[in-house]
């Protein structure tokens, strides 16, 4: 059984690596990871150059009708008249300078936080903060496509007549997808590591202030990001097998992520008790598990233990039903698509 | 049931229902080891569903199916079987060669070198590295046959293998099937091209509306349905007299003559018995039926369209 699954996993990879889709999705993951790191780098550069920026609303500007603008604290606190904003009232400038002086106390800590966001090991968590959400969507697309093609092209019939067994075949697919999700995250993080070294080299020595990022935090963030894809993989597998369609798997996999947040936001604003129900929803618990934000819905997220139990339940139930359907149903001819 | 009796496939009361529709109705079938076995029937007669049940694709509602004496759907049993059911299905983004390597790999069937040998055998060697999605129907069919032969299986199911092939391709595949059926391998051939089937099959089973209505060697089945064309001095009286003979299966009027379904060895008895009743024979010709005529007679349908004969 194990040897059969291992052999099928190897051949599943043989098929998947020949699909453009896999490499395009990986390119997206790398792109977003890079955006996160370089975004943090430019934010650090900006903070260092400006000493922080303050936004001046339109109502405080002398010339009415102008859009809100920003002023740099380094300019305001420089004492150099040439660097003061000429188009603002002196009283407004004084107020802004006072605000800047207050913020200056926290500037070293902010700089340290920004610096560790684009240098190792902190950049791992920065990148995963963005890539983790994207990974759910990418894994939904890949899972629906990898499983759905056997229905769309009708290849499930050819596969099963080879005597491979239904359970081992679906198991091998899921293992391959889970491994690809992990390697995809590691691959994206490998490019992040290279970028972090480059960005760190450009930024120079670290600023003063306490740094808190550790390699164990980075490892934990990777584990959480990967494990959070598993219930989503199970959801997409279930829908694709149930509907015998990759299109349905993709539609639900992608749509559910946003639909759940909209529903929670809407109903939580109407009924206070709905927040308790929402604490058992899939995406909300994924956010709770990885320590993300509440998304559109906002509010307090479920704690990590609660989230882990709920996500394990979703993974087992959705995966179990998918296996049961896959084993039990008759295999039909090609349904098209795939 | 066991394979010790020389049958590679045995089914007992095999039944498949889809709601109220009975696709296969208490089918008890025996396929002897070796040679080419024709699995015939009009469209919708239950051939593909039966193959699906034998190959573990369709769950039977009741009954039993065994291959080599073992449960048909068992993966270990299926590894000794090659199959092309309905239209061939492969991954469109992989080449013909990559598809065969994949199916060889998952089923652990033979050596990598077999892939090239099979591609040459079905005349796909030159297009082996083209994507499957670019193949013509005939090329897809050839790849399906090659895939069914991976691992040199003891039993091969071929469902309409000549679909989409040009006349030369049909002849090639016919020869290939004939060769495959030699040397102990069994080929189960499902086709509505009965002239083709007659040329390659040793034994056949005929299904109609999910039921087995005839089974045996082609020679034997056709002999049972031999006929005689008869012209007499009084056809009306002759028809009445012939209908009363116990070994005459049926008597029909056709083109101003009587067509009598009866063993040809009894021709002299017909002539004698009619003469004893003052009906004299003007013409007595043996009629040899083709498999197609036999099929149409027992199923009442056209083999190509599956529609009932008028």
Overview features:
heterodimer; A: 338 residues; B: 310 residues; 2 domains; 6-stranded mixed beta sheet; 11 helices; 33% helix; elongated
Report what the structure shows.
The complex is a heterodimer of chains A (338) and B (310). Chain A has 338 residues and is mostly helical. Chain A has helices at 2-16, 20-50, 73-76, 90-104, 107-118, 122-152, 155-160, 166-203, 215-227, 229-243, 246-270, 274-278, 282-290, 304-328, and strands at 53-56, 69-72. Chain A has a two-stranded antiparallel sheet. Chain B has two domains: 3-216, Rossmann fold (3-Layer(aba) Sandwich); 226-288, Alpha-Beta Plaits (2-Layer Sandwich). Chain B has a six-stranded mixed beta sheet, with helices on both faces. In chain B, strands 1, 2, 3, 5 and 6 form a five-stranded antiparallel beta sheet that branches. The A-B interface holds A 7-8, 10-11, 14-15, 18-19, 149, 153-155, 157-165, 169, 328, 330-331, 333-334, 338 and B 52, 55-59, 75-83, 85-94, 98, 101-103, 105-109, 147.
Task: Report a brief summary of the structure.
The complex is a heterodimer of chains A (338) and B (310). Chain A has helices at 2-16, 20-50, 73-76, 90-104, 107-118, 122-152, 155-160, 166-203, 215-227, 229-243, 246-270, 274-278, 282-290, 304-328; strands at residues 53-56, 69-72. Chain A has 338 residues and is mainly α.
The CA-CA distance between the termini of chain A, in Å, is 28 Å
Class of secondary structure makeup of chain B: alpha/beta
Order of helices and strands of chain B: EEEEHEEHEHHHEHEHEEHEHEEHEH
Overall average residue pLDDT of chain B: 88
Number of helices of chain A: 14
**Multimeric state:** heterodimer
Task: Write out the strand line-up for the largest beta sheet of chain B, numbering strands in chain order.
Answer: 7-8-9-4-10-11
* Shape annotation of chain B: elongated
Summed up, the domain count of chain B is 2
Instruction: Spell out the helices and strands of chain A N to C.
Output: HHEEHHHHHHHHHHHH
- What characterizes the major β-sheet of chain B? 6 strands, mixed
**Rg of Cα set of chain B:** 23 Å
Mean pLDDT of chain A: 90
Tertiary shape of chain A: elongated
Low-confidence stretches of chain B: none
Q: Looking at CATH, which topology of the largest domain in chain B would you report?
A: Rossmann fold
Computed over alpha carbons, the radius of gyration of chain A is 25 Å
């Amino acid at each position: 059984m194990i040897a059969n699954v291992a052999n099928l996993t190897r051949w599943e990879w043989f098929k998947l690596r020949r699909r453009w889709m896999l490499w395009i999705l990986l390119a997206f993951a790398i792109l977003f990871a890079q955006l996160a790191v370089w975004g943090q780098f430019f934010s650090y550069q900006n903070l260092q150059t400006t000493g922080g920026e303050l936004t001046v609303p339109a109502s405080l500007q002398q010339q009415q009708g102008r859009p809100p603008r920003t002023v740099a604290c380094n300019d305001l606190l420089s004492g150099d008249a040439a660097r003061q904003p000429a188009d603002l009232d002196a009283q407004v400038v004084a107020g802004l300078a006072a605000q800047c002086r207050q913020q200056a106390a926290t500037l070293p800590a902010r700089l340290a936080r920004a610096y560790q966001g684009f240098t190792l090991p902190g950049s791992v968590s920065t990148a995963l903060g963005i890539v983790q959400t994207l990974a759910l969507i990418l894994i939904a697309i890949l899972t629906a496509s990898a499983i759905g093609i056997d229905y769309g092209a009708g290849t499930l019939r050819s596969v099963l007549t080879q005597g491979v067994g239904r359970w081992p075949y679906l198991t091998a697919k899921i293992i391959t997808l889970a491994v690809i999700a992990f390697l995809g995250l590691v691959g994206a993080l490998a490019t992040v590591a290279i970028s972090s070294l480059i960005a760190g080299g450009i930024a120079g020595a670290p600023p003063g202030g306490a740094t808190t990022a550790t390699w164990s935090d980075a490892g934990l963030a990777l584990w959480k990001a990967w494990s959070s894809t598993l219930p989503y993989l199970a959801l997409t597998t279930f829908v694709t097998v149930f509907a015998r369609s990759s299109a349905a798997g993709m539609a639900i996999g992608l749509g559910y992520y946003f639909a759940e947040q909209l529903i929670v936001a809407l109903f939580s604003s109407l009924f206070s008790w709905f927040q308790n129900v929402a604490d058992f929803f899939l995406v909300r618990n994924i956010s709770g598990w990885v320590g993300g934000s509440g998304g559109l819905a906002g509010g307090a997220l479920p704690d990590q233990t609660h989230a882990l139990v709920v996500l394990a339940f979703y993974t087992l139930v959705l995966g179990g039903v998918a296996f049961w359907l896959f084993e039990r149903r008759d295999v039909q001819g090609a349904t098209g698509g795939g | 049931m066991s394979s010790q009796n020389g049958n590679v496939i045995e089914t007992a009361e095999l039944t498949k229902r889809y709601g109220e529709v009975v696709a296969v109705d208490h089918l008890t079938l025996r396929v002897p080891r070796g040679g080419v076995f024709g699995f015939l029937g009009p469209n919708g007669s239950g051939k593909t569903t039966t193959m699906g049940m034998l190959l573990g694709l369709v769950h039977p509602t009741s009954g039993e199916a065994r291959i080599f004496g073992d449960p048909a759907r068992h993966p270990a049993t299926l590894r000794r079987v090659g199959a092309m059911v309905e239209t061939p299905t492969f991954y469109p983004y992989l080449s013909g060669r990559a598809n065969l390597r994949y199916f060889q790999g998952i089923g652990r069937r033979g050596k990598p070198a077999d892939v090239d040998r099979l591609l040459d055998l079905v005349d796909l060697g030159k297009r082996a590295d083209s994507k499957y999605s670019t193949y013509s129907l005939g090329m897809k069919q050839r790849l399906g046959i090659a895939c069914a032969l991976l691992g040199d299986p003891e039993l091969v199911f071929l469902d309409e293998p000549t679909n989409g092939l040009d006349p030369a391709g049909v002849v090639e595949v016919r020869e290939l099937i004939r060769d495959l059926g030699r040397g102990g391998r069994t080929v189960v051939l499902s086709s509505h091209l009965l002239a083709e089937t007659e040329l390659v099959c040793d034994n056949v089973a005929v299904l109609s509306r999910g039921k087995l209505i005839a089974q045996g060697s082609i020679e034997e089945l056709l002999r049972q349905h031999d006929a005689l064309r008869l012209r007499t001095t009084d056809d009306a009286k002759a028809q009445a007299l012939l209908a009363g003979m116990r070994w005459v299966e049926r008597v029909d009027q056709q083109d101003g003559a009587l067509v009598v379904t009866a063993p040809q060895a009894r021709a002299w008895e017909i002539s004698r018995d009619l003469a004893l009743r003052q009906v004299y024979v003007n013409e007595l010709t043996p009629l040899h039926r083709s498999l197609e005529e036999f099929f149409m007679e027992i199923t009442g349908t056209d083999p190509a369209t599956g529609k009932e004969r008028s």
